Amino acid sequence: MKKVPALAIFFTLASAAFAQNLKVVNAASLSAVSVAPNSIISIMGNQLSSSAETAQNPASPPTTLGGVTVTIGGSPASLFYVSPTQINALVNPATPLGTQNVVITSSRGTQTGTASVSTTAPPGLFSLSGSGMRNGAIVDAQTFTTGVFGLAPDNSATFLALFGTGISVTTAPTVTIGGVPAPVLFYGPAPCCAGLEQVNVQLPSTVASAGRVSVALTSNGQVSNTVQVVLKAQSSAQFPSRELASLAYIPGTSLLLSTDEDDDVVRVIDASSKTVKQVITLPEGSGLNGIAVNAAGTLAVVAESDRGKAAVIDLTKFTVTTEIATGAGPVAVAIVGSQAIVVNQESDTVSVIDLGTSTVQKNVPVGHGPEAVAVDATSKTAYVVNEADGTLDVIDLTALAVTKILSIGVSTRGEAIAVATGFAYVTVPSGGPDGMVLMVNLSTGAITSFKANPSQDGGSGALVIYNGRIYLANQTGSTVTAYPLSPASSIPIAQIKVDLGPRALAIDTKDNLLAVSNEGSSTIVLVDLATNQVTAHINAVNTSSTGSDGDQDDHSDRGRSPSLPIVTKISPASAKAGTSVALTITGKNFTGATGVVFVGSAKGSSTSGRGKLSPPQPDTAFTVSNVKVSSDGTQITANVTIASTAQAGAREVRVTTPNGESPTGISGTATFTVTQ
Fold it and tell me: Could you give the residue range(s) of every CATH 2.60.40.10 domain in the chain?
């Protein structure tokens, strides 16, 4: 098995900037519990150096870099990267164990702190963002490619390479994918970088098409942070396909809202007609995740994970009315009364939003790696499970403060939560293939665990509670377990076979249905709650009378959305480089427009491509100012200055709004030409 060069992955660390008191963490997980000798660490603070410098040879980093030195317990640390706010370093293998002094010396002076050094420190897995969460730094061990993984074309085994630090190279680690053990075929130092370890595993065939699932590694009895990997069938593994992420029910109706993490749309699904009723577009590159609906069924709030925002949707018009800046990496949402609670996984905060004013009341600090939230409307309390440090924060939504912190185990990686009758129910997908669920007494903190997947084919993830039962999605096993809310109840346990990769659940109270969103098959399965029998399979991405584009994932239903802004005319349609023009754009759905973007050379419609969407990249030769929108949303005026260095040729003109960007390549109507 080849070892994969990981230099590019490793240095995703360097882009993360922190401004806080001196803090020493595992560089992969950002956990501050303790760090291991010969592991890579990040030290965060202020004025740590006068400039940013990167080591020339990460396989043998120096002990002095950019005039900066670091000692831990008197032992010099080798330095990969230094900047005013962050230092990435290698803990000297000879560093003494226990609580040690950390001394940083630079032209800015000397700073001191402490770090706990231990041979039993939890290992860390790197992520692509450098946050230690979401997409893991994982590649195909044979092709060296990242992205979405599936079985090989001939259905032979697929091998993945994981990268981490603080992983023992003398004792074999164990790895789970979606709670399913993955055979470890290689573990040892990665070839590029001191302190970086590589672990190669075989992808279990049973988890193919499960969608987005968690990956966890255990070394010397210590559990790493969890990262994520997306698993699809081989036919769609070349590109990220539809990623049905979250599901919410609109009270008093038969309608469901399904978020798509790749297409950046919310699909409105009618459970009675079993069709996709409408598509609501959001800006490209949003990375839509959690969604919630208010009790009146008039508005929804959806997390834009890749934009650090929450979007508010008017459910009477099925359009986005505004976007509100939150913390980094919002992943989950709950609504109680006029407040929306948004979990910001990458900034360790919860944004409490006043929906009446569309403003953030407060960003409440919580534990490390918050993953999910549940609310109690009666007591106006929110409960946040922090995946990375094994805690549960209790937030008073009136005082806007954490009033209690409950421990669920420092190595317990809780991912979903629901509350009822004084208890919190927390699922731990990485806890094993039998579906670990924790039942936490919210008064005493006492914990009872039970196993929710009798088939033992994967961990339990999403959950909902209704009428004395807790329903749990077993994502890698393609089942849902209906479990009595009280383990002592006489209600029998039922296991319901659904479609591939059940990732999200919602209860349709009007029709007495459990709705199951299946990422692996892009379907919504409806289950009769009276009989626990499947009554329908809905194609959740089919919005065309001619059928779904399925595995092609060409974003065509996004392009047909009635809420998308459309450009029909640009005047003037050309100008010389080095001039300024007063531009008028005519079309529809421009209300709330946030800007006008000129994009490279005209290359056709953005809605005809494949794979995950990304925001348009503007041509820097164009400066747009004084953007004004007509009251009826059909016209935009703006001042445009074209640099003298602008290259001659056509540009795509795109209007950006909370409902997404205007499509391009529409018979030339959205094209502006630079002449010489």
Answer: 7-117, 564-675
Q: How far, in Å, CA of 497 to CA of 327, rounded? A: 37
Beta strands in 387-522 (DSSP E): 391-396, 401-407, 416-420, 423-428, 436-441, 447-451, 460-466, 469-474, 479-484, 494-497, 502-508, 513-518
Query: For the segment 583-597, what is each residue's pLDDT rounded down to a tens digit?
Result: 999 999 999 999 999
Segments of 18-120 assigned E as strands: 23-26, 40-44, 53-54, 64-65, 68-72, 75-76, 78-82, 86-90, 98-106, 109-117
Residue range 564-675, CATH number: 2.60.40.10
CA distances from 598 to 269, 452, 616 (A): 35, 52, 9
Q: For 7-117, which CATH superfamily applies?
A: Immunoglobulins (2.60.40.10)
Question: Does residue 198 sit in helix, strand or coil?
Answer: strand
**pTM as predicted:** 0.91
pLDDT value at residue 610: 55
Rounded Cα distance, 542 and 553, in Å: 11
Contact 334, 374 (CB under 8 A): yes
Residue type, 16: A
Q: Look up residue 219 and give its amino acid.
A: S
